[in-house]
Amino acid sequence: MFNSNFYTLKQAMDVSLLRQNVHSLNIANVSTPGYKRKYVAFEEFLKESEMKLKLSKTNEKHLIGSESVAEPLVLVDNTTTMRNDGNNVDIDYEMVQLVKNGLRYQVLTRLMSLNIDRYNAVLRGVR
Amino acid sequence: MMSEFDIMNISATGMSAQRLRVEIVSTNIANAETTRTETGEPYRRKVPVFAEYLKRSMDGKIESAGVKVVRIEEDPSPFRLVYDPTHPDADENGYVRMPNVNIVREMVDLINAQRAYDANVAAFNVTKAMVNSALQIGRG
After folding, report:
1. Which residue among A13, A33, A98 sits closest to B126, beta carbon to beta carbon?
2. Is-above-0.90 flag for pTM?
């Protein structure tokens, strides 16, 4: 009954929340010796999943399979070192990414609201 | 799966760790000239040891939940020797053993801790804005 916008937006918001988690972790551990920064890989997988073949339905009783096409993954960046103590958190980069991610989340919530408004308009028959 | 409130807790662990660091730096600065302590030795510079805080989540996976101070250690570096025969704690050659605290280094550490604290506060505020905007969904 509902279009897939709800699902798409939900997934985007979930990934945004996960990113927030990871950036907060990196910022909290900015002075922890030996800590390596974490990051979320998602867009790469999304592109990959677009290229995958999807099962076609020849009968309406066929199952559509899992709707989730890509799952975000938290990875650890072991390749760099910023300081003598082995920590590789770049505080400026993390702050900028954190603020960007917060704004992106607000855009997504706005889109979600607009999506709901469209259904409300149809249900009430008024604009 | 974490919630917004877990993310806020992460920032809180960061804030409390940095606050403890400021407290320890203050203690070091206050005791920069202390030649007598309970052990009879001059004051030794204290250093907080930070470690990643790992927690077992509901589904049994070990996940990172911020930072914690595992212990407060003492700097084993040698004491400063200052020549001052008039000092009551001077040895037979006139040298006084002073704490191994370097004020300049402590000040740098203090500013570092303050900036890191500010960064955690900023992260908390962004998370709060995200929760607030999520609460506005469907309100038109």
Report:
1. A98
2. no
